[in-house]
What we know:
This protein has 364 residues and is of the alpha+beta class. It has four domains: 95 residues, Topoisomerase I, domain 4; 25 residues, no CATH class; 103 residues, Topoisomerase I, domain 2; 79 residues, no CATH class. The protein is 34% helix and 20% strand. A four-stranded antiparallel beta sheet has the order 5-6-7-8, with no helix packed on it. It has a four-stranded antiparallel beta sheet with strand order 9-10-11-12, with no helix packed on it. Strands 1-2 form a two-stranded antiparallel sheet. α1 crosses α3. The longest helix has 22 residues. The radius of gyration is 28 Å and the shape is extended. It starts with a helix and ends with a strand. The structure holds zinc ion (2 copies). One zinc ion binds next to loops.
Amino acid sequence: MNVAQRLYEKGLITYHRTDAVNLSEKAISQFRDYILKKYGQKYVNPTTRHYKNTAKNAQEAHEAIRPTEVNLATLETEDSKQRKLYELIWKRAVAFLQAPAKLKSTKVVLANNNSRFVANGVVTLFDGFLKITGAEVDEVVLPEMAEGEKLPNQGVNLAEQKTTPPPRYSDASLVSSLEKQGIGRPSTYAPIISTILARQYVEREEGRFKPTALGVAANEYLVKNFKDILSLPFTAGMEEELDEIAKGKLDWKKMMKDFWSGFEKEVKTAEKDSERVKVEAEKIGEKCPECKEGDLVIRTGRFGKFISCSRFPECKYTRQYKELAGFKCPECGAEAVVKKTKAGRKFYGCSNYPKCKWAGWKKP
Length: 364
Ligand SMILES: [Zn+2]
Ligand SMILES: [Zn+2]
């Protein structure tokens, strides 16, 4: 967002805090002219794509993000982030008005007794907008075959495939999921993310959010005790009501009253009936060297993680926490450790620091 802000302030792109998905008529005709001159008639899309905004609380007062000057395809600047973001915006906007690519896909079904084998082929007939985006189609060219043809068996290879769980959210996938559910809006996505990080409900790990023990416990508690408020339709409905208030169609006092009466009841019930949740502290698999009874666990305090005895407060043993990364430092061979930037982003460093200064975002 900061990078986009700078591009906007320099007048290079249109207003960036928008979730509009269509361009203005004026921009469309400028972009079409550009494509015609630069790439020729076949690359101009004869019809304009019109998208419907799928985000529920779309604020479409602005147009979609685009470069203000179509002739400026690349940005001359030292700042590589600005250059890359600008190029991305430029390419998307131009590709939006380019002709669709034409792909030919073929599906071959081979029958063998009771088994069916399927082969899918795809070749590009015309690149269209792919010329600009630079995206490449993974072409699979199938050999010539005729219907009913008998194919010789050239042996069978068995390949084992595992299903993988869905990946954890990244910044981008979390925002896109919130958008689909109608929760939040462009101005609140960044604060949502900084809040869950600041409260230590999640940690960043290799670009993804990983829930902490505290995050898991808080989530379980809230979902159990505040079913309505934690439900997605409730939050989306609340956003809609806020929009109604903004438009002057709904009285905020009435809305707050309706919300409060239900919420207050739930809080009172939770205070009375629910048990305090114990956040399971992670054991490190070592006994406490002081009392020889407790297990050593990882706790999170004001200054980050530390190791302490599970029998705290009876036993007060603590020591500094060093999370082993599970591999050796590529420079000196000492154990690599997990560290964190001030912004809470994880990185790897050498346990031999400051003697060895190796550090990296990813496991080598
Ligand atoms: Zn102890
Ligand atoms: Zn090292």
